[in-house]
Specification:
The chain is an alpha+beta fold and 153 residues long. 18% of the residues lie in helices and 35% in strands. The protein contains 5 helices and 8 strands. It has helices at 6-9, 69-74, 76-81, 137-143, 149-152, and strands spanning 26-36, 40-45, 56-57, 60-63, 82-90, 94-97, 101-114, 123-126. Strands 1, 4, 5, 6 and 7 form a 5-stranded mixed sheet that branches. The protein is elongated, with a radius of gyration of 22 Å. The termini are far apart.
Length: 153
């Protein structure tokens, strides 16, 4: 092996191989709007090219900082997505650490509906049928938690 080893041949074992620079950690805040509209809820198919591509999720507002419920309501995307909202429950933040990302995930359960102008971007489903849709594990864990059980059993 020493005959093939460049570092050994050039007495550079202490400095070779070079370590790649560490990838910068990207911190993202996902605020999911879990809508209770009668017996239904709304899902969207994730189109972004990432590990959750082609999975279903609740309407999402992604930010670079955490948001309170009041701040969430002032977000432009919130105003253009939902109407007649009443906050039913706000879940604690969960953190999912990936190799190059840190996802801070919160679920806000609202009684409300998607605005007609954007309804075509979503699938309206009976809340009891959520298991028929492939979702990221973070959403499945939420939906099977005791917090979501009253709304999604």
């Amino acid at each position: 092996m020493t005959t093939f080893c460049y570092a050994y041949q050039h007495e550079q074992q202490q400095v070779l191989p070079l370590k790649n620079t560490k990838t910068e950690l990207r911190v993202r805040y996902f605020h999911y709007l879990v809508l209770v509209d009668g017996n239904d809820t709304y899902l969207e198919l994730r189109q972004t090219k990432d590990i959750w591509h082609s999975l279903y999720q609740f309407p999402l507002i992604e930010t670079t900082l955490p948001l309170t419920t009041d701040k969430l309501r002032t977000e432009e995307r919130f105003k253009t997505l939902v109407t007649q909202t009443e906050l039913l429950h706000e879940a604690d933040e969960k953190v999912q650490k990936l190799t190059h990302q840190e996802l801070h995930i919160r679920f806000f359960i609202f009684r409300g509906t998607i605005l007609p102008s954007v309804r075509s971007e979503f699938v309206q489903i009976p809340r009891s049928e959520w298991k028929k849709y492939q979702m990221p594990i973070a959403l499945v864990k939420f939906l099977t938690s005791t917090l979501a059980a009253p709304y999604f059993s």
